[in-house]
């Protein structure tokens, strides 16, 4: 199974680049910047990754992100992730980053984007992995702050390239911060030619998924697993082939589901939803894309046909143009034939 999953061409569509900061790199960055970490060792740091809910994770995740201080740090972080993804058969990535997490600390947006982008372009050149970059707004901050961040990003786009950003997203603490708070921001992003995605229905209710569709006009729902609480919404998601970027190991670590055997991924797949498998914050949740596929394969007894469908869905749900999607679908056909 591991070989089969690795050989399947896959897109990763839900990946926070800040969530790929492995403890080893955290210690290296801490040494580089003269910071003392509150952990005695790499093992102690990894051991501390026990979370009770989304917020308890976010507190540690933002503390880790504080180690990222210049373009070289963002380049190293992104390169390490892309190496790993490539080894696991990921052929296309759509990466989230949180500009506000960094600009609030005085790190220039140019350094963040410059470091991530140089690594993305190098990986495309060296191993053919393609990419899109998605800037996410922190939903616990104000809509005004998000709007100012968007305007800053649009000015930066003018000085880099029209295609530097593909979409905007919405992440951070979900409960109590409904999508409607950001309607005007997403409208401005759309006017500026950007697509939209949003985290919804991870910890928040099914209503937030509905709101993300209606108010933010999203093209995908990140997580979305709580859609099951509203059968009419589930039918709509299936009818519209609205992709869900599901992150199984994240859902277990953050107690969205008690155990992998209780995850609803297979049920949603069988209902015809465009479910995809992703890693969210792999350094914190114990696995990259391959480990997420393996976890659901074992926990939910997925067949090779199910795995093939998940890979196809990831290509269908990507922002790749139709010709490139057809190319990857043909490559999946080939792997499926070979078994
Ligand atoms: N930021 C990083 N990972 C996240 C998640 N799973 N949910 C919300 N915000 C996040
Ligand atoms: Zn996420």
- In sequence order, what are the helices and strands, one letter per element? HEHHHHEHHEHEHEHEHEHHEHHHH
Tally the beta strands: 8
Total helices: the number is: 17
Query: Strand order within the widest sheet?
Result: 1-2-3-4-5-6-7-8
Helix percentage: 40-55%
The biggest beta sheet reads:
8 strands, parallel
Strand content: 5-15%
CATH T-level fold name: TIM Barrel
Task: Give a concise summary.
The chain is 53% helix and 13% strand. The protein is α/β, with parallel strands linked by helices. Helix 8 (143-160) packs parallel to helix 9 (183-191) and helix 16 (304-316) packs antiparallel against helix 17.
What would your notes on this structure say?
The model has no long low-confidence stretch (mean pLDDT 98). The chain has an eight-stranded parallel sheet with strand order 1-2-3-4-5-6-7-8. Helix 5 runs parallel beside helix 7, helix 8 runs parallel beside helix 9 (183-191) and helix 16 packs antiparallel against helix 17. It is built from 17 helices and eight strands. The N and C termini lie close together (10 Å). The protein is of the alpha/beta class. It has a single domain, classed as Metal-dependent hydrolases (TIM Barrel, Alpha-Beta Barrel). The protein is globular and about 50 Å long. It binds adenine and zinc ion. Adenine binds next to helix 4.
């Amino acid at each position: 199974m591991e070989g089969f999953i690795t050989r399947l061409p896959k897109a990763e569509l839900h990946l926070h680049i800040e969530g790929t900061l492995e403890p080893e790199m955290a210690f290296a960055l801490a040494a580089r910047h003269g910071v003392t970490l509150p952990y005695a060792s790499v093992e102690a740091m990894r051991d501390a990754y026990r979370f009770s809910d989304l917020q308890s994770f976010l507190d540690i995740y933002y503390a880790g992100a504080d180690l990222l201080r210049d373009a070289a740090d963002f380049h190293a972080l992104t390169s390490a992730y892309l190496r790993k993804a490539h080894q696991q058969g990921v052929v296309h990535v759509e990466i989230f980053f949180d500009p506000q997490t960094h600009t609030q600390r005085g790190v220039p947006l140019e350094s963040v984007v410059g470091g991530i982008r140089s690594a993305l372009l190098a990986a495309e050149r060296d191993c053919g992995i393609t990419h899109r970059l998605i800037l996410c707004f922190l939903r616990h901050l104000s809509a005004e702050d998000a709007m100012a961040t968007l305007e800053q990003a649009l000015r930066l786009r003018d000085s880099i390239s029209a295609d530097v950003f593909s979409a905007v997203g919405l992440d951070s603490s979900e409960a109590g911060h409904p999508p409607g708070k950001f309607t005007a921001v997403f409208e401005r992003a759309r006017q500026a030619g950007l697509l939209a995605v949003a985290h919804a229905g991870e910890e928040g209710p099914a209503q937030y998924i509905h709101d993300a569709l209606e108010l933010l006009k999203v093209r995908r729902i990140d997580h979305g697993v709580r859609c099951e609480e509203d059968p009419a919404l589930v039918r709509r998601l299936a009818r519209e082939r609205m992709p869900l970027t599901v992150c199984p190991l994240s859902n277990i670590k953050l107690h969205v589901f008690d155990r992998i055997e209780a995850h609803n991924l297979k049920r949603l797949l069988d209902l015809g939803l465009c479910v995809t498998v992703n890693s969210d914050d792999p350094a914190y949740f114990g696995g990259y894309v391959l480990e997420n596929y393996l976890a659901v394969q074992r926990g939910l007894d997925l067949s090779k046909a199910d795995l093939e469908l998940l890979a196809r869905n990831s290509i269908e749900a990507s922002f790749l143009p139709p010709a490139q999607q057809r190319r990857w679908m043909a490559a999946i056909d080939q792997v499926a034939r070979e078994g």
